Amino acid sequence: MPDDPQAQNDLSAAMTALGRNARAAAAELSRAPTGARNAALLAAAEALVDRERAILAANAKDVKAARAEGQDDAFIDRLLLTAKVVEEMALGLRQVAALPDPVGEVTDLAFRPSGIQVGRMRVPLGVVAIIYESRPDVTADAGALCLKSGNACILRGGSEALNSNQAIAACLAVGLKAAGLPEAAIQLVATTDRQAVGALVTMDQYIDMVVPRGGKGLIERVAKEARVPVLKHLDGVCHVYVDDGADLGKALRIADNAKTQRYGTCNTMETLLVAVAEAKAFLPEIAKVFVAKGVEMRADPGAMAFLPKGAAIAATEEDWYAEYLAPVIAIRVVAGLDEAIAHIAKYGSQHTDAIVTEHGPRARRFLREVDSASVMVNASTRFADGFEYGLGAEIGISTNKLHARGPVGLEGLTSQKWIVLGDGHVRS
Amino acid sequence: MPDDPQAQNDLSAAMTALGRNARAAAAELSRAPTGARNAALLAAAEALVDRERAILAANAKDVKAARAEGQDDAFIDRLLLTAKVVEEMALGLRQVAALPDPVGEVTDLAFRPSGIQVGRMRVPLGVVAIIYESRPDVTADAGALCLKSGNACILRGGSEALNSNQAIAACLAVGLKAAGLPEAAIQLVATTDRQAVGALVTMDQYIDMVVPRGGKGLIERVAKEARVPVLKHLDGVCHVYVDDGADLGKALRIADNAKTQRYGTCNTMETLLVAVAEAKAFLPEIAKVFVAKGVEMRADPGAMAFLPKGAAIAATEEDWYAEYLAPVIAIRVVAGLDEAIAHIAKYGSQHTDAIVTEHGPRARRFLREVDSASVMVNASTRFADGFEYGLGAEIGISTNKLHARGPVGLEGLTSQKWIVLGDGHVRS
Prior knowledge:
Chain A has 2 domains: 5-231 and 409-418, Aldehyde Dehydrogenase, Chain A, domain 1; 238-388, Aldehyde Dehydrogenase, Chain A, domain 2 (3-Layer(aba) Sandwich). Chain A is 44% helix and 21% strand.
């Protein structure tokens, strides 16, 4: 709580106004035809290109201030916009415009014995709040996905990117205006007051879903304080299990790709499980790859026995829970499928887990019994991604079990209502 | 908080044990074939029939105690079991056994440009807690739906029905045992301590969803305290709008049925909206029906002008928000579709709303723009029901916007995970 009750009141009034405006805009958007929403996206893309210079100037201010504050290179890297990034944002808006409209899709419409027809219609959620860190390109991306799916949105980016975000949001506003849509369809929280996040995530009368995008600290804070449903992604402790009789060529390719293609992503493998029957043949080969690429191996005694001397250190209990997001991997030898499934159930994060196997029935069991958002057979965990899954866009990856699991595209920003068609039908 | 810290510790330990056992049972259930779950349901049905006498004896104890406590007739009515109710419970279990298994259904499996196949598999949520009042038949019904959908469940019925619930739960346990499934798949909370509910709805490490079934007080309490997602149904302020040029024969039939077929259900119409163009012809006719059936009318000035003198009283602002659940109706004359939609958006509860119209484009607008769980054209709001919609069962009606809206059947007790099939595919 801030010390100044007046400041608290002002913030609260400002947030309520944002919420109320968003709710009104959502009602208008729910009536807006596909064409208007697409026109707004295309006009916003044009505005981004036209105003590139102004956007870069605003960004330069943010970068300068962040440097003065002593932010590190990685932070500046995420904050920095270039002409190329602005072009990519514009391209992103055009791609979203080209996606099929999820809103209004009617499915499963069928006659019932009573004579009524019953079906489902896909509709926007209403108002979505996106809370993110100092990555200004998220402003364009998240705003576009919400608009496309007919949702009003409230964007709260990192305070260090406020000038950049305002410059980008202004382009989105140009697009909305050009298409005759309410400007409150996409609102940026203008204050840098950290209390704003707490206010947003508790306004359940105005906001239907919150999507935090950023590091674990941000997501945990939002999840803890929220009274609004949160589409959240916590840990990504992903496993690859190399089964008895696996094709070791495939296993090598998949384990290498799942670990080393990118170290910092949530769908990167963190623990490699190997059936004891394959340990002797497989572990020395994969160790060569990891050693060559500088991946630190932390092994249980069963795995250690088959790794080159000194190549690995002993894993501790914590290693099985760890999401390294770094060139480090935990390796364990298991008796077989049952032990692999039990390990994943105990230590995993229900994100993405893969089996490498040639054995049909064991693949079938793994698919059924591993309770993760993405379960894979003979494929790299790195495929867990909205674009790879054909969603055309990705608002985030969910480790929730309700509403949406795994990569979430436009569909995750909608729900289905029931529609009933009759001709004077009554219930008897 | 109870005064006795020891009692609090005991309760907490007992609830944790329930949660842990449920989680373990859920893992077993996720592997159990359809046949085993159905066999358990059929054996439980048989046990209900076999043990009818013991169930009625347990129920007689509960009824006697409730009478001694001075509970009213309506309460006793809900609590009372008869031979017929026991038979119906058994029949209900057999019907659930006969429903198609939602678990494991794979949809949308398709090849992606990378060569992987991506699809979705329907899976149980895990552990579901059902919190209900003193209606012992819910024990059989809710337990059956959770079991069928592969979820372990924790049942917390009203404390006045504890003996009855235990007798019924014992039959479900017989079924589970006969089918070789873990008895902890269906657990009944044995304590009558009211703190148990608070403990249940905050155990997010063990429970994936809470379904409160009962009056508004119960649901509000659960929603307020819960840290676990709640499948909830709050108000049902349902509207029928009679449009310009509606077929007044259909309008009369639908308004009559929507209001008077049953007064106490959530899908009963509470407010009738009439386009001004039809007010003169329609209102005197529907008034005859309502007068004949003893339905109290509360009208705005526009409607009052067309109702027989003294037949209605003046509606107040509160009437438009009211869920009467009684032979009372609010009636308002509106200019047309826009005003009707605006009224529903302002005063409605996003449950079920219907338009009576012969006009295609206005029907299309109503379907699209009314943001309710069920939106109907020329049909009675009373159709908003899992059985009428063909779900085969109903765990509840949801006014949530995420996960499941409207009548919720077995599908609402499941979610979809992604499955990916490859043959050594890696991401490039």
